[in-house]
Each structure stands twice: as C-alpha cells, then as structure tokens.
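Structure in, sequence out. Go:
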C-alpha cells in the first residue's frame, strides 16, 4: 500500500473521530422521552439533614415577643420590659443587625447550646423536626402561648473540583442545589471532563461516607436520588483519556530521542519527496 493511501486512511479516521466526539458532550440525551407522569411523581427536593459543622439561624416568634425573647440568642428583657439586643462586641444595643455569633454552630457531637433549654441534639434531623422539638420544649412549660420556630441553614455549600472551568466551594442561599446547578456555578465541565463518570462523595450526619458515580449523558439522571445534592457534598469531575494523556510526561532523555527521530523522519520524507519529483 502506498504512502498516499496510508495518509488518506489516517485522515478518514481523524474525521470520523471528530464527528463522534459531539455525541459525548450533550447532557441527558433524549430527556424529553421521559413520560410526564413519571416526572410529576418525583419527590420534591428533601430538606437538608443537619450535620456537625452546620450553621443554623433559629428564631422563636410569638404574639407576645417579650414572652419568647429568652429563647432568642443575644436577646434580653431590660428593667423597663423592652427587648434589647446584645451586640457582637458585648455592648448592648437596640439594633437588630445579625452576625455570625447570632447563629448556632452544630458541634462535633451534633448538639447546639440553646438559650434556656440548654443542649439540644440536632444532627440527623431536618429543620422541621428540630423546630417541632424546640416548640414542644417551650410550650407549655415556659410560656402559655404556642410559639413558631423558624430555622435557616446558613452555610449550605458544595465543593466542585476536577475538569471544570472554575473549581471551588459554592453556596446556596435557598438551601437547594442539584448536580446541574452546582456544575453551572463551576462554569460547566471543560471539554476534557469525563461526563459519564462524575464522582459524588457524601458525608452523612452519622459520619459515614458514600461514593456514587453519575452519568451526565444518561437521561435517567433526572430520576436519580442523587440528582439533588446535600450540604457539604463533594463533586469531582474525572479527566477523560485526552486530558490524562496530556498530563503524562516523558523522561527528558526519551523526549529528546523522540525529537531527534522525528527530525530524521521529516528529513527522510523530504528526501523521498524530492526523489519522486525528480523521477517524474
């Protein structure tokens, strides 16, 4: 077989590879084929399950604010019966500006230190469960009116690393984030990211860890229980074969040898070309 035929075959292979590459880029191929009745039955994104290290903002409300002031961090009743706020610099102030010290940090035992009630175990519970337990502890033991308890998770975050354009730690103010939103915050995968093998590392409230693999091509990702993320989830985008090959480095001596051989081959090709022209 002539050299020209070898070159033609190599060119064809290159063109075919470039044509098949786009098939590996789209997300959730044929997702519109999932029946609407299946999508409508998907459960809503679950409430976050509280874990050690979480930061909670807890407020207790009632029709009589002074009755529940003792249950709100940094609040107290002055001799005149008015609610006052303890500023973060330990000086009293009537302002209501919040700081990090107004929040509750869940300790390594999964507890928070709550005013009047003392230590409350919150790890492994949802916000609603914690709110109900606080309300039951307050009423009717301390007050005669039913309070309402509002809880916000202030540090819902996930970490995205690997073959994305902007790796980092990303937060969500509404305590909700799915895998696509997290990747969008990280600028999406670059062209060298492995879309069929996204690693999700999750640490549960009891300290156990799970590892799951997600396929962005698969339309069933929408149906996966891991489509919606939990706080502190870790996402790693594996580099594809192209990225791995580019990251591989040869020994300098081998690199030099290849360069020399390449130069000799180029020179030989030039000589052959000149001979062929001369023969014509």
């Amino acid at each position: 077989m002539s050299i020209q035929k070898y070159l033609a075959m190599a060119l064809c292979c290159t063109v075919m590879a470039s044509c098949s590459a786009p098939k590996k880029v789209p997300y959730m191929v044929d997702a519109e084929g999932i029946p609407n009745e299946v999508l409508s039955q998907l459960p809503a994104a679950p409430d976050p399950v509280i874990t050690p290290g979480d930061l909670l903002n807890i407020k207790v409300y009632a029709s009589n604010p002074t009755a529940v002031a003792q249950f709100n961090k940094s609040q107290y009743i002055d001799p005149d019966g008015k609610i006052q706020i303890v500023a973060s610099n330990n000086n009293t102030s009537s302002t209501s500006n919040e700081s990090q010290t107004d929040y509750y940090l869940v300790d390594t035992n999964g507890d928070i230190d709550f005013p009047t009630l003392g230590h409350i175990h919150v790890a492994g519970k949802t916000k609603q469960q914690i709110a109900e337990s606080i309300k039951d502890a307050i009423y009717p033991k301390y007050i005669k009116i039913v309070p309402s308890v509002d809880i916000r998770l202030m540090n819902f975050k996930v970490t995205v690393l690997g073959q994305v354009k902007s790796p980092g730690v990303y937060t969500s103010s509404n305590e909700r984030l799915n895998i696509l939103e997290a990747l969008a915050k990280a600028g999406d995968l670059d062209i060298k990211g492995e879309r069929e093998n996204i690693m999700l590392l999750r640490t549960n409230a009891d300290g156990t860890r799970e590892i799951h693999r997600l396929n962005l091509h698969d339309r069933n990702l929408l149906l996966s229980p891991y489509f919606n993320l939990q706080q502190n989830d870790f996402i790693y985008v594996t580099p594809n074969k192209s990225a791995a090959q580019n990251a591989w480095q040869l020994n300098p001596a081998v690199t030099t040898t290849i360069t020399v051989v390449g130069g000799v081959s180029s020179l030989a090709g030039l000589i052959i070309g000149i001979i062929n022209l001369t023969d014509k």
